[in-house]
Design a protein that fits this description.
- There is one protein chain.
- This protein is mainly β and 304 residues long.
- It has a single domain (6-177, 239-302), classed as Beta-galactosidase, Chain A, domain 5, CATH 2.70.98.
- It is 7% helix and 42% strand.
- The chain has helices spanning 6-13, 129-134, 253-260, and strands at 19-25, 28-34, 38-43, 48-54, 81-82, 107-113, 119-124, 139-147, 151-159, 165-167, 169-171, 174-176, 184-186, 192-195, 201-204, 215-220, 226-230, 235-242, 246-251, 271-278, 284-286, 291-302.
- The strands form 4 sheets. Strands 5, 11, 12, 14, 15, 16, 19 and 20 form an 8-stranded antiparallel sheet that branches. It has an 8-stranded antiparallel sheet with strand order 6-7-8-9-22-18-17-13, with no helix packed on it.
- The longest helix is centred in the first third of the chain and has 8 residues, at 6-13.
Length: 304
């Protein structure tokens, strides 16, 4: 199936100056949203929210200054969609980490200006011969994003087949911070976690999370809100999630960031990933005819 052209997208789904579509690199199209509450951008590839900046605020969603907009490659930053598995594939080493949903073009299916002044846009992941080779199951995946004074995302998996399917998924969100060494992350105190930096050693979180080295942790059995307190910017980012019992916290730190090659100069200091997931033992089985919706709401609160 051919990708939707910018002209077609603007004709069918554009909303004046509030929602328009543009090309930012060869074959790489984005939706650009500017409403009374916020400014945002979303890549058609991966249905990946790239930026979200509420009015009169600093960016909340971090996009790397070294981000590369290349067809078939996930963009560093924003909200990559991990689906239908999280991390490495269980049995096929050649399959891409975190699944294929973040690296192929999605279809825009709807757009709407809401009475609140927010803008809603919906995407659907097309099934192709290439995706069926990696995921030979009958199902549908949609992403609905509402961009206003809050950022709300629904990632919806529908099982349209006759047998159960088991999925892992995540919203791999990069949050912008003043300096990751000065922030603290609350809401995961007491939760067990697997520490990927130490060969998945099982540990338990004591108090808030602070970051002064590489962090890559899968927190288990937690549905709590996560609060990213940023005293320098006098704000708190609240991560409120539904239908997720695991959370990943990640920062690559200097050595790994340099190896990644697209973090930008010292970019790792200005971001932290707090990912709402269904990962590890928290994978989800979806019965025939049923659906699963991973939902998040991101909002800002003042610290003083």
């Amino acid at each position: 199936m051919s990708a939707q052209s910018v002209a077609t997208l603007n004709e069918k789904f554009g909303i004046g100056t509030e929602l328009r579509f543009a090309t930012v690199a060869d074959g790489f199209n984005v939706a650009v949203i500017t409403n009374s509450h916020a400014a945002a951008s979303i890549a058609i590839q991966g249905a990946q929210i790239l930026t979200w900046t509420p009015r009169r605020e600093k960016p909340v969603i971090w996009l790397s200054p070294g981000a590369k907009f290349v067809v078939g490659k996930s963009v560093r930053g924003g909200v990559p969609v991990c689906w239908p598995w999280f991390g490495a594939h269980a049995s096929e080493a050649s399959f891409p980490a975190h699944g294929f949903a973040r690296t192929i073009p999605w279809e825009v299916t709807a757009s709407q200006r809401l009475k609140s002044g927010a803008t809603k846009i919906a995407f659907r992941l097309p099934q192709t011969d290439a995706t069926r080779k990696q995921w030979p199951h009958s199902c549908e995946l949609e992403l609905h994003a509402t961009l206003g004074s809050t950022l709300d995302i629904d990632l919806i998996t529908r099982n349209t087949g006759s047998a159960p399917i088991t999925i892992g998924d995540a919203l791999h969100t990069y949050f912008a911070v003043s300096d990751v060494r000065d922030i603290s992350i609350h809401g995961l105190g007491g939760a067990p976690y697997l520490d990927k930096v130490e060969d998945f050693k099982r540990k338990q979180q004591v108090g808030p999370i602070t970051i002064n080295q590489e962090v890559d942790r899968l927190y288990l059995d937690t549905t709590a809100d996560c609060l990213i307190d940023d005293p320098r910017w006098a704000r708190r980012i609240r991560v409120h999630k539904h239908h997720s019992r695991s959370t990943v916290v990640w920062n690559p730190w200097l050595a790994k960031a340099e190896k990644l090659g697209d973090m930008g100069p010292n970019g790792y200091l200005n971001m932290v990933c707090v990912e709402s997931t269904n990962a590890g033992d928290d994978v989800v089985t979806v019965a025939p005819g049923a659906s699963h919706a991973l939902r998040v709401e991101y909002s800002l609160e003042r610290l003083r």
